[in-house]
Amino acid sequence: MTSLTTHFRTITVTDASCDPPEEIEISELVKPGQLLVTRPDSNVKREETIRPVAGQNTQITKDETGIEATCHGYPEITIESGERGETAVVNVIPLFHISADMMEAHLTLQPPIAEQIQLETLVDLLEQAGVKYGLDTEAIEKALRKTVATNLPVKHFIAARGKAPLHGKDAALRFEVDVGSTPGKELGDGSIDFRERNMFVPVSENQVIARKSPATAGIAGMNLTGEPLAARDGMDLQVKVSEEAIFNEEDGTVRATVSGVLTIVGKDTIRVSAQQKINGDVDFSTGNIRSHDAVHITGSILPEFMVSTKGDLLVGGNIQAATVNSHANVVVKGGILGPTSTLKVGGDADIHHIERSVLHAGGNIIIRGSSYYSEINAGGNIQGADKVKLVGGKVVAAGSITVGQIGSSAAEPIRVAAGTDARRYRRYQEMQQSYEKILKETQSWYTRHGHNKKNSAIEAMEEEMAVIEKEISRFNLIPGTPEDSLGNPDCFYTEAKITVSSRISAGTIIRIGNETTVIKHELGKTRIYLDRATNAITITSF
Predict the structure, then answer these.
(1) Which of 60, 80, 266, 529 is most deeply buried (CB count within 10 A of its CB)?
(2) Could you tell me if residue 153 is inside a domain?
(3) Quick one: pLDDT at residue 5?
(4) Residues 350, 436: one domain?
(5) Residue 504 forms beta bridges with which residues?
(6) What letter does residue 47 receive in the DSSP assignment?
(7) Which among 395, 397, 405, 403 has a CA at the least distance from the CA of 374?
């Protein structure tokens, strides 16, 4: 390197473990502020010089005559060619690196060229960098011995590790009877279990149905600086049972008090009831059905009839312009057909298809066919296999949405919202509509009378607009957050996502929590979610 003077020593060692053996250049350990390279003499012709450039963990000296280290480590020089000639990029491989979350410290050691760095010195340097907890002196000693024995570097080994907090486990019900699989459950490989729900599980009088496992306390952790890391205690579960079951607080058991069939709603509710079976359709021969039991209808529910159940409901056919309400779970083997069909479910809903109808579920919704111009609201996830299509209407889930296709070029744009409370979303839209209506009325009045005139009615309308505008600015649509917490950055993120395994049409109106966007052009396999750092909607293909 013509007129480029280095101020650190290097040696070349052979790594015999490679095939063929490789020669490695190693350098001495330098300190912060130590001079590494001085610039070429100004009397030397420019074309004969290699220009030094400060790279990682280095900087230009104050007198601008050289480059110095900014941390403890091992210097290296890389020659790069460019339009202005060759440059020598001077870097320092840091002796240690502490992770941004202060949970790990990694050391890199090279064989000593002169004097071997001592364990005590390394510990002092780490402590000066803020490491007060989790030092692994045994690992450091082992690495020091290895560099001498092999005459080779030991790279990026963990010299200190914090203790992650151990969050407590939530209380849960562990079932003693075989309740089968829960459709919609995400499996270990990321796929979704779409097996059918096991309906009408029989139980006997005095049989133990489930046991409550209590919540456990969290165990605090600690980072490398010695700062405690709070752990979340597990949440308790308030077990709810019907009159035909009893919950023993002392031993955590749930027993049936009569023989019947089992209904499980969500994570906390157990019902035992008789089973009522209706062979055929719900029509004039049966009348409306109001039952405290689980009900199995082998046929369809015909127009203008009503079915209400406390237990699970299985419909073998369709719901045709009818009203259905269940406090538990509902499986509809056929479709929900409008224009006036309404299905309200306290637990999960599992349907084949829905057309120009309304479906509300407190839990998850499984769609096995398609949805056309319907309003669907879920207190959990909405899930469908690759063939499932959502076309037109409005689909809202408190959790995530997974389907095959969203929208159609031949249909009106559909609104799809994940991580959104359906009740709040309706209220939000009502506020927007009220604001726009009042704004239109005031603008019309000013157009006719001029902006210099006002009356008490206009002033009242403008005051109402200000109130609505303020409420909208604070209104949080994410489930589980305070309604007026939109300005709180801790209440803005949701892990809910929308996954489309086939395609999503242009014009589709997407919402994730409080953020919304419109799909500009047709997309293929797509995942839509909030970026954790920016809270902006992110669209990726897969």
Answers:
(1) 529
(2) yes
(3) 87
(4) no
(5) 406, 523
(6) G
(7) 395
343 and 297 part of one domain: yes
Pairing of strands 221-222, 358-361: unpaired
Residues 376 and 501 both lie in one domain:
yes
Element (H, E) at 449: helix 422-449
DSSP states of 521-540 as a string?
S-BSSEEEEE-TTT--EEEE
What is the C-alpha to C-alpha distance for residues 10 and 313, in angstroms, rounded to an integer? 79
pLDDT along the chain (542 residues), means of 10: 78 87 92 90 57 93 93 93 81 96 96 89 94 96 93 94 97 92 67 77 96 97 97 96 94 96 93 95 96 96 97 97 97 94 97 98 97 98 95 98 96 98 97 96 91 86 95 97 93 97 97 98 97 95 94
Query: Which of 106, 128, 161 represents a domain boundary (last residue)?
Result: 161
Please state the φ and ψ torsions of residue 69, each to the nearest 5 degrees.
-75, 150
Tracing tokens 């101020």 back to the chain, one arrives at 7
Select from 432, 450, 476 the last residue of a domain: 476
Tokens of 166: 């151990």
Give how far Cα 478 sits from Cα of 415, 475, 481, Å.
Answer: 16, 9, 6
Copy the structure tokens of residue 45.
């012709």
Determine the Cα–Cα distance for residues 8 and 454; give it in Å rounded to an integer. 82
Question: How would DSSP label each residue in 334-362?
Answer: EEEE-SS-EEEESS-EEEEEEES-EEEES
* CA–CA separation, 210 and 175 (whole Å): 4
**512 and 497 Cβ atoms separated by less than 8 Å:** yes
Report d(CA 186, CA 173) in Å as an integer: 19
**Total structural domains within the chain:** 5
Q: Do 471 and 533 sit in the same domain of this protein?
A: no
Sequence-ordered strand ranges (E) for 379-478 = 382-384, 389-397, 401-406, 415-418
For residue 467, give its domain range.
424-476
- The whole-number pLDDT of residue 17 equals 82
CA distances from 149 to 111, 128, 467 (A): 9, 29, 76
Q: Does residue 151 lie in a domain region?
A: yes
Cα-based distances in Å from 242 to 42, 162, 186, 293, 496: 92, 47, 29, 11, 32
Q: In what order do the strands lie in the sheet with 208-213?
A: 172-175, 208-213, 253-256, 245-247
